[in-house]
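Private note to self, pasted from the team thread so I don't lose it. Backbone tokens:
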């Protein structure tokens, strides 16, 4: 009932900035929490950040805390991930996810996913 489309990925230099967007469509009139995950080649999908429907509550992985910021614009049905001072270790495919439950740090907590967008951080 939700379709998610990520955008904004690409190549960025270490220490620069990048903003990812995830636009939701479909059943957007119901409350849903959203999150960002990432997956590097040969590794498990990793939690990055999550935000409640209201946008009041957020949660970050320790690896990105203080550098990345998650936010959402309800009017545009869009969630963002502002990536400041990215590092080469942040290189991965980034996925947005949604759930009509409260946010979770496990991929199994989400049943709606975007197609992913590649983020490559060069040194």
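Design output:
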């Amino acid at each position: 009932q939700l379709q998610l489309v990520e955008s904004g990925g690409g190549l960025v230099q270490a220490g620069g900035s990048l903003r990812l967007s995830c636009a939701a469509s479909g059943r957007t009139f119901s409350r849903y929490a959203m999150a960002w995950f990432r997956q590097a080649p040969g590794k498990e999908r990793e939690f990055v950040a999550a935000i409640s429907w209201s946008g009041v509550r957020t949660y970050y992985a320790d690896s990105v805390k203080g550098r990345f910021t998650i936010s959402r614009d309800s009017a545009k049905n869009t969630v963002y991930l502002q990536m400041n001072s990215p590092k080469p270790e942040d290189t991965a495919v980034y996925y947005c996810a949604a759930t009509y439950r409260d946010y979770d740090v496990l991929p199994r907590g989400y049943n709606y996913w975007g197609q992913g967008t590649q983020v490559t951080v060069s040194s």
